[in-house]
Sequence to fold (217 residues):
Amino acid sequence: MHAAITARLRHQTVMKDATFDQVFPPSQRLRSCIHWTPVDVAVRAAVLLAPLPGRKVLDVGAGVGKLCLVGAATTSSTWFGIERDAEMVRSASAAASAMHVEQRTRFFLGDVTSVDWSAFDAFYLFNPFSEMRFEGLLSATPEEAQARRVRHTATVEFVQQQLLSAAAGTRVVTYHGFGGEMPAGFDLAHREPARGDELCLWIRRRSRRQPAGHAVR
Ligand SMILES: C[S@@+](CC[C@H](N)C(=O)[O-])C[C@H]1O[C@@H](n2cnc3c(N)ncnc32)[C@H](O)[C@@H]1O
Fold:
């Protein structure tokens, strides 16, 4: 049944999220409408991230792998996800097998800071760190809240540093931003409406001489 979802995606058939989300366990489906990229947005993001075959794309904070699964089904590139939640990584890997796209996508358990970013041609950032900053904040002590702020800032700065040293031509797609500004040296090459927000495509230009960063939506 899940292979049929792959076939429908390959034929560009429009699909409801509730249909796609059957590849995930019920407990994960509940989070879909807020936490996972909608199918139509993922299809567009995949085109922007991998316009040519053979790209290696990293979803930074991959959740249950929706972007990677859609990318693997609709492109000839390879899709990698790094995710800190073990259950989500298991769900993503199981979905890849069920959809018969495991040759084109792999999921790793770990923090985004544990990955060698130089191994990838493109990155997807769907607001990955907001939970780190805000989840359970109301019940946190002032010290805990401060520790979260510090960790959030450090992680956003890590992402900016990785992008700053990325090769020319590196692509980044943001959806609801990533909590910081896109570093200097990236051009906003394309933007399009996506479910009340925007998909923004940033491309690393050749010259590294560029003083200012850009605000990211
Ligand atoms: C908004 S969800 C996006 C999921 C997925 N990219 C998608 O588009 O469907 C953000 C995910 O990032 C993960 N995350 C947050 N901070 C992380 C970190 N430091 N390292 C790895 N994953 C992280 C969260 O657990 C969550 O699953």
